[in-house]
Design brief:
CATH topology: Rossmann fold
Helix content: 40-55%
Mean pLDDT: 93
Structural class: alpha/beta
Strand order of the largest sheet: 2-1-3-4
Order of helices and strands: EHEHEHEHH
Radius of gyration: 15 Å
Oligomer: single chain
Strand content: 15-25%
CATH class: Alpha Beta
CATH architecture: 3-Layer(aba) Sandwich
Length: 158
């Protein structure tokens, strides 16, 4: 994982819609990701609509992402959650399951799904990636979402 943020793309001139699907679990860290995502999307896509959907935990994220993708409710969907490793292998299993499901949804639907369901070793890592500015993954996801929406728009001729 890079210690630098993805470079900022050009401002999206056209209107677009972005959905954020976020876990309520580990709420302090998830809120930081949501706040940074919203802030960056607002700067980069001033004409966009941004809708936030909440689910109980990371495991529930893919079902809502799938529904939004099937209904073509967004030009891009940003999945946000924080999984903190414990003493068992549960975190790794959960993270792999969510990642695989999100990738499958994106490929099957043709709707970009940005995976910001972070599997972290500690609260220190969570603070760095969710609350601080230097390597905030919410900011990075917003930049990637705007870039992929712009690229797909050009390819699809819309």
């Amino acid at each position: 994982m890079s210690k630098e943020l993805l470079s900022r793309p050009k401002t999206l001139k056209s209107s677009a819609s972005f959905a954020i699907v976020a876990s309520e679990f580990n709420s302090q860290f998830v809120k930081g990701l949501i706040d940074h995502t919203n802030e960056e999307l607002t700067l980069l896509a001033p004409n966009a609509s941004i809708i936030l959907h909440r689910v109980p935990g990371s495991f529930e994220i893919p079902i809502l992402v799938r529904e939004l993708a099937m209904q073509k409710k967004a030009d891009a969907i940003i999945a946000v959650g924080v999984i903190l490793k414990g003493e068992t292998g549960h975190a790794e299993n959960l993270a792999r399951s969510v990642t695989d499901a999100l990738q499958r949804i994106a490929l099957d639907s043709g709707v970009p799904v940005l995976n910001v369901v972070l599997n972290l070793n500690s609260e220190t890592q969570a603070r760095e990636r969710c609350l601080e500015d230097k390597i905030n993954r919410g900011t990075e996801a917003a930049r990637a979402a705007v870039a992929i929406v712009e690229t797909l728009s050009k390819l699809r001729g819309s």
